C-alpha cells in the first residue's frame, strides 16, 4: 500500500502542478474497492478513493491561500475531466521500480483505461485554461474513475491574516453559499425580482401590500382555468428567432411551464438573449455540456484566470452574461423528474439499471450510445442508441443527439433536431406528448458528423 500511496502522491502532484503552486501532496487516506464492470463486459475494476492534503512549502498570506485554493480546485477538475490525472498516475506507476513487472503493468493499464483512446477532434473554440475542449466529441466514457478528495491544510505558523474586504458578489466557489437569503427581494441582496410582502416590510411594498397579491391571485386563477401545460424544448444553441417562432406555434401563454433540455448557448447567433428570455419567462431546464462549460468559465474568471489564448465562445458568453442570467445558469440541475407527468428531463441520457441518484453527471450531459458490451460513449454509433435500452417506467425527454434527430421510443423521446445546423427546433407538449417544430432560418454552424457502425 505504501508503494501505491507514493505513486498516487507523485501522480496527483504532477497532474495539478502542485510543486509550481508551492505545495507538497500528502496522501491521508486510501480506500480500494473492487467491483464488476457494466453488464456484458465481464471482469472487474478497482476504484480508488483518495483523500490528500496540500501542504504549503512556505508562509502564505490569507488572500494567497484563498487564491491558491481556487486554482487547485480548477486544476483538479480540469485534470480529472481531460484525463491528465490518469496519464500522470500512469507515468508515475511506470517509473515505480518497487513493484514486480506484472503488477506494475496491471496498475498502468488500470490508470490509462480512460486515457488510451483519446479523441483528437475538438470544438473550434478549444484551447482554454479550464479545458474548453469539445465535450460533444469526447472519448468513450467508462464508469470507472479515481475519486480524489483534497483538503488545503495551512499551519497557523504559516498563515498571515491581513485586513481585507469580503467578496460581495452573488456567486460562490464550490462549497460556498450561492444565494443570499434576501436575494429574491427588490432592493435587497443582489438584484432580487419580487417585492417583500412580509409583515415587517408591508409598508414599503406596492400599494402597501393590498393590490399586488390580489392581482397575482387573479393571474394564478386564470392560468389554472386554462389548464397549464409543460413544454419541453430541445437544444436551442442561441437560436432566438426560432425559439420565439416555436413558442408562438405552441400557443405559449403565461401559466405554461417551459423546460429546456440543455445547451441553450453556443454555436448560434444570440446565446445571451436566449438565456435572458428563458429567465424572464420563468422557464426551468437541465444542464447541457455547453451550459456546463459557460459555468466553468465563469468560475475561472472569478478566480482570476487569464483569457484563453485561442478565442473561446464559452469564455465570451460567461464574461458578458448579466448576474441574473448567470444565477439562472447556475441553477440548472443535471436532471428533473416529475411524478405527476411520469417524465424525466435530461440533456443527453441515462444508463438503464442505475438509479437516478447514482447516474454519472458527465454521462447525463454527453452520452449518445451504449454498445453491446455495456460501454457508454459520447460517440454516435448508428445501431446502438442508449434510449433503446431504457425500459421506463417514466418517459425520458432528452436532447444532445442531433445526428439521430427526432427519436421516439416507448419510454424515451429525443428532441434535438439540429436547429443550429439548419434543421428544426422541436418541442414536446405534455401531458399529451404532442410534437411541435419549426424550421431553422439557416445553417448557423457547420456540423462535423462522426458516424460509427
Could you provide a short overview of the structure?
The chain has 453 residues and is of the alpha/beta class. The chain has helices spanning 2-15, 62-82, 84-95, 101-111, 212-225, 240-249, 271-280, 289-302, 313-320, 323-330, 361-366; strands at 23-36, 44-56, 60-61, 147-152, 159-160, 230-233, 257-260, 284-285, 335-338, 343-346, 369-370, 376-377, 380-381, 395-398, 407-408, 412-414, 424-430, 434-439, 451-452.
End-to-end distance: 43 Å
Beta content comes to 15-25%
Order of helices and strands: HEEEHHHEEHEHEHEHHHEEHEEEEEEEEE
Please state the overall shape, judged from the principal axes of the Cα atoms. Answer: globular
Radius of gyration: 24 Å
What composes the largest sheet?
5 strands, mixed
Per DSSP, the total helix count is 11
Q: Structural class, judged by helices and strands?
A: alpha/beta
Portion in helices? 25-40%
Q: Helix and strand layout, with pairings?
A:
Layout: H1 2-15, E1 23-36, E2 44-56, E3 60-61, H2 62-82, H3 84-95, H4 101-111, E4 147-152, E5 159-160, H5 212-225, E6 230-233, H6 240-249, E7 257-260, H7 271-280, E8 284-285, H8 289-302, H9 313-320, H10 323-330, E9 335-338, E10 343-346, H11 361-366, E11 369-370, E12 376-377, E13 380-381, E14 395-398, E15 407-408, E16 412-414, E17 424-430, E18 434-439, E19 451-452
Parallel strand pairs: 2-4, 3-5, 6-7, 7-8, 10-14, 13-19, 14-16
Antiparallel strand pairs: 1-2, 6-17, 9-10, 11-12, 15-16, 17-18
Helix pairs in contact: 1-3, 3-4, 7-10, 8-9
Amino acid at each position: 500500500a505504501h508503494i501505491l500511496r507514493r505513486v498516487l502522491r507523485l501522480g496527483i502532484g504532477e497532474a495539478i502542478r502542485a510543486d509550481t503552486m508551492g505545495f507538497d501532496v500528502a496522501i491521508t487516506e486510501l480506500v480500494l474497492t473492487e467491483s464488476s464492470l457494466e453488464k456484458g463486459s465481464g471482469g472487474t475494476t478497482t476504484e480508488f478513493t483518495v483523500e490528500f492534503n496540500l501542504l504549503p512549502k512556505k508562509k502564505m498570506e490569507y488572500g494567497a491561500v484563498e487564491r491558491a485554493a481556487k486554482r487547485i480546485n480548477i486544476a483538479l477538475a480540469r485534470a480529472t475531466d481531460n484525463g491528465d490525472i490518469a496519464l500522470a498516475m500512469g507515468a508515475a506507476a511506470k517509473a515505480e521500480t518497487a513493484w514486480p513487472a506484472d503488477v506494475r503493468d496491471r496498475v498502468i493499464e488500470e490508470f490509462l483505461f480512460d486515457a488510451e483512446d483519446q479523441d483528437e477532434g475538438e470544438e473550434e473554440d478549444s484551447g482554454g485554461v479550464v479545458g474548453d475542449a469539445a465535450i460533444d466529441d469526447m472519448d468513450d466514457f467508462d464508469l470507472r474513475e479515481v475519486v480524489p478528495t483534497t483538503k488545503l491544510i495551512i499551519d497557523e505558523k504559516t498563515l498571515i491574516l491581513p485586513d481585507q474586504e469580503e467578496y460581495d458578489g452573488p456567486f460562490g466557489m464550490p462549497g460556498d453559499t450561492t444565494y443570499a437569503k434576501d436575494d429574491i427581494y427588490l432592493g435587497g441582496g443582489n438584484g432580487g425580482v419580487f417585492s417583500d410582502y412580509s409583515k415587517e416590510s408591508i409598508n414599503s411594498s406596492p400599494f402597501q401590500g393590498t393590490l399586488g397579491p390580489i392581482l397575482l391571485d387573479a393571474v394564478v386563477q386564470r392560468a389554472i382555468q386554462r389548464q397549464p401545460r409543460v413544454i419541453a424544448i430541445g437544444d436551442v444553441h442561441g437560436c432566438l428567432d426560432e425559439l420565439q417562432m416555436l413558442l408562438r406555434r405552441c400557443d405559449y401563454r403565461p401559466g405554461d411551464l417551459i423546460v429546456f433540455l440543455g445547451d441553450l448557448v453556443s454555436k448560434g447567433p444570440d446565446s445571451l438573449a436566449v438565456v435572458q428570455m428563458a429567465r424572464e419567462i420563468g422557464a426551468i431546464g437541465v444542464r447541457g455540456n455547453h451550459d456546463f462549460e459557460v459555468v466553468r468559465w465563469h468560475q475561472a474568471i472569478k478566480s482570476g484566470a487569464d483569457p484563453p489564448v485561442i478565442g473561446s465562445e464559452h469564455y465570451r458568453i460567461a464574461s458578458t452574461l448579466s448576474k441574473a442570467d448567470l444565477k439562472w445558469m447556475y441553477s440548472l440541475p443535471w436532471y428533473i423528474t416529475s411524478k405527476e407527468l411520469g417524465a424525466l428531463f435530461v440533456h443527453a441520457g441515462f444508463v438503464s439499471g442505475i438509479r437516478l441518484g447514482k447516474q454519472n453527471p458527465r454521462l447525463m450531459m454527453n452520452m449518445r450510445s451504449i454498445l453491446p458490451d455495456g460501454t457508454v460513449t459520447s460517440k454516435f454509433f448508428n445501431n446502438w442508441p442508449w434510449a433503446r435500452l431504457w425500459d421506463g417506467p417514466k418517459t425520458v425527454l432528452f436532447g444532445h443527439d442531433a445526428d439521430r434527430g427526432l427519436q421516439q421510443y416507448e419510454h424515451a423521446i429525443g428532441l434535438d433536431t439540429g436547429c443550429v445546423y439548419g434543421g428544426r427546433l422541436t418541442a414536446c407538449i405534455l401531458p399529451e406528448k404532442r410534437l411541435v417544430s419549426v424550421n431553422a432560418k439557416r445553417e448557423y454552424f457547420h456540423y462535423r458528423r462522426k458516424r460509427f457502425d
